[in-house]
Write a structure and sequence with these properties.
Elements lengths: L5 E5 L7 H10 L7 E4 L1 H14 L5 E5 L1 H6 L2 H10 L4 E4 L2 H9 L6 E3 L5 H7 L5 E4 L2 H13 L4 E6 L13 H11 L4 E7 L11 H19 L7 E4 L1 H6 L7 E4 L1 H4 L6 H5 L7 E13 L4 E2 L5 E2 L4 E6 L15 E3 L5 E7 L5 E5 L1
Parallel strand pairs: 1-11, 3-4, 3-10, 4-5, 6-7, 7-8, 8-9, 9-10
Antiparallel strand pairs: 2-11, 11-14, 12-13, 14-17, 15-16, 16-17
The structure holds pyridoxal-5'-phosphate.
């Protein structure tokens, strides 16, 4: 599903593009001569591509959970702000605080729960919390009251993902009514999340959307409305224009990661914003049956040429390395053999 993260490496130290040579030079010595580079120009490109897909008036929420999908949320924020992004989402309240401390004044929706022992502190940062049960709403409301504040919340409906969220039934309608009357809470939105929006037939996601719309319609009949209704994630932005509602929540496509099938995504103009740069330390040819790396876990099935690259930037390396392919400067792609933690990466070159 996902495109492999791009990792550019220099096959031949004596034959490098000037740009890459500059990159390697400026990395020495503390970075171990490898670097993860986020291209903010590509981020702007992706924002523009997303906006081309949006109907007039639909707002964009940038999903920066997991430190901006490990691209570094604080580094991305100034560009997102400069490009007019007015809503943000994070996974943890502490991520929201980090953005606030970097000057973010826009609405920030925390997608995960905040534990009761953190709430007295967390309610001070003007974040939006998701609410998915009456008990949790009460806990948040009490913390807000203790701090003399009104806390923004957004109702999370579970319409088919089976993660956190209220089920779509009549008890939920009553529960939301009860929450709407809690004085220290301010309802700023209602949302749900698709489990299978990447499927072209929309059968599953369509059902989720219908459940969401049915619930919000019933709430309207009860006189309960919200400033924002939102459901669409990256695949839905690409494939389900009807799901845009008031706002869309873009994660993958913001970073240029592929949320749909390869063929479909090739037709789009999104660009990966992350490149990793490193270089090859040594190339060797080994015969069939050679054990490679610690524990001899990889055994060559044919005569094989192996490149050992320099050390990786491990703190940025949250992606599953098995998904990563290596690209040389001519755009040839080579598979990863294995990654020895904290040391080198071995790549099968042909
Ligand atoms: C609730 C919610 N909305 C939106 C997103 C963004 O999804 P995507 O990366 O497909 O755009 C996520 C990401 O996991 C999410 O949990």
């Amino acid at each position: 599903m996902y495109e492999p993260a791009r990792l550019c490496f220099i096959l031949d130290n004596f034959d490098v593009l000037e740009k890459w040579k500059g990159m390697i030079d400026c990395m020495e010595p503390w970075m171990g001569r490898t670097a993860a580079v986020v291209d903010l120009g590509m981020l702007k490109n992706n924002l523009a591509e997303i906006r081309k897909k949006l109907k007039p008036g639909v707002e964009l929420m940038a999903v920066l959970k997991g430190d901006g999908y490990r691209h570094g949320a604080e580094g991305l924020y100034p560009t997102l702000k400069a490009c007019g992004v007015t809503n943000y989402a994070v996974a943890l309240w502490s991520e929201g605080v980090a953005l606030r401390e970097h000057g973010a004044t826009e609405p920030i929706l925390v997608l995960g729960d905040t534990r009761d022992y953190d709430l007295d502190e967390a309610v001070r940062y003007n974040l939006d919390f998701p609410v998915f049960s009456v008990e949790y709403a009460k806990t948040v409301a009490e913390a807000a009251k203790r701090q003399g504040r009104k806390q923004n919340i957004q109702i999370k409906l579970d319409t088919g993902m089976s993660r956190i969220g209220f089920p779509d039934n009549d008890e939920t309608l009553e529960a939301i009514k009860e929450i709407s009357q809690m004085e220290s809470l301010n309802m700023t939105g209602i949302f749900t999340h698709f489990a299978r929006a990447d499927e072209y037939d929309h059968k599953s996601a369509g059902k989720q959307l219908d459940r969401f719309l049915r619930m919000t319609e019933k709430l309207k009949e009860m006189g309960i409305t919200f400033p924002k209704y939102h459901v669409a994630n990256s695949p839905a932005i690409l494939l389900m224009p009807d799901s845009q509602l008031d706002m869309v929540r873009a994660g993958d496509i913001l970073y240029g990661l592929n949320p749909i099938d390869e063929e479909g995504f090739k037709k789009e103009n999104f660009k990966e914003i992350l490149s990793w740069y490193t270089y090859v330390v040594m190339v060797k040819e080994v015969p069939t049956g050679t054990e490679v790396g610690y524990g001899g876990t990889f055994v060559t099935k044919r005569p094989t040429k192996i490149a050992t690259t320099a050390r990786m930037l491990l703190h940025k390396l949250s992606l599953n390395l098995q998904r990563i392919l290596f690209r040389d400067k001519h755009d040839h792609i080579f598979p990863l053999i294995l990654h020895c933690p904290t040391y080198n990466v071995l790549v099968n070159i042909f």
